């Protein structure tokens, strides 16, 4: 059928054809080699929060409903490493893992060939930006209904200066109009293809930014900028590794609770939990809470069962008891610990030895003994630290040191045991109302302490989560006293507020 092309004074203005993409593809650019981090492996393979950086990044796109397909462009010699990560993580949206080019431009061209000729949305994202949010992905895709190209950026908090070859200032641009670019950068596929087609005729073409290619070679194309986030950092320098790790801790600490009593019951019925230090305080509350949801819980402690966590034979016997009774061990929780105050120079050797044995040797012993059981169930080891791990405090030297050691132990074991599917996390409670704390500090105003029940609830949330390698900070909501953190039978449960606390007492 031939369309009438007759035009005249009264003819309607021609309207552009609506954009109808066949799909939306996320292209994850993982070509970095990690030279600035001083690593022997590409930085995208470095583990943060228990997983390789690239796995965190891919998981964001996997979870985004706006994304239909993921293509990975990997550094030379490491394609198989990336494929193994994809397979192990069960990332179903990843359709291709291929080798990238020698430059960013070459890698983009390879990606465009891999995407294919059909009209689609394409998002290019740095693999080493693992803290990308679903909100940014959503806004990028939505913006492509209106714009041909989309960038992500945040305002510059610093004044930017321009210098000459002698490092003398030549200009100070107005900061309010400046932005710091991030990724993803999103395009309608015909637009980015055309920009690169034109660029091929330029012998001086070189760019590290795909929006820059569109800006230079398709100058009439508006490029929409949407708000990025401060958390969407690029892991480039050694300090970035530490920042990203901490940001993951803060994000993980906000994992939501299950919605109701039934959800917890479905997760915990038939599970076996062993709690070392379960006679009082947080351990006791966790025991009672988990039992209420159908878990089979076996609490062990020095005072009730004669179990000394620093003795391998005691730990072995405790684990064997639980396993023989139920045929499985899903979670092992270590709340056992002692708090002795005093100047190091004035502390007797017996006290020092007891602190080190119970607070550190004990968790290490339990970890070694528990691994074979947890491997069978793909379970979790849960440890407890104190905010004093972030800096040693006077008259808490050994206590602080052992709590810092537990954080390092958590992160190391999460990495070490990832291949066998065993998760390891650490709870960092605010000052908590427990008998141990009362013995050390006496009676304190109730409104200043976190309830042991609240810490137990957060602990349970971590146990039923997929988290690993995390230090989860638990604190009271502003103005709250130590109210129990019970889960309502029908209505949705709340969420424990999280941030750095000041003292752990488990």
From TrEMBL:
UniProt site (Transition state stabilizer): 36, 43
EC number: 2.7.7.60
Region Disordered, annotated ranges: 476-506
Single annotated GO MF: 2-C-methyl-D-erythritol 4-phosphate cytidylyltransferase activity
Site residues by UniProt (Positions MEP for the nucleophilic attack): 175, 234
PROSITE patterns on file: ADH_SHORT
Signal peptide annotation: none
Pfam family, one: IspD
First-level EC class: transferase
Catalysed reaction, written as an equation: 2-C-methyl-D-erythritol 4-phosphate + CTP + H(+) = 4-CDP-2-C-methyl-D-erythritol + diphosphate
Compositional bias per record (Low complexity), positions renumbered to this chain: 479-489
Nucleotidyltransferase among keywords: yes
Similarity-based family: Belongs to the short-chain dehydrogenases/reductases (SDR) family. Belongs to the IspD/TarI cytidylyltransferase family. IspD subfamily.
Function of the protein: Catalyzes the formation of 4-diphosphocytidyl-2-C-methyl-D-erythritol from CTP and 2-C-methyl-D-erythritol 4-phosphate (MEP).
Protein name: 2-C-methyl-D-erythritol 4-phosphate cytidylyltransferase
Gene name of the encoded protein: ispD
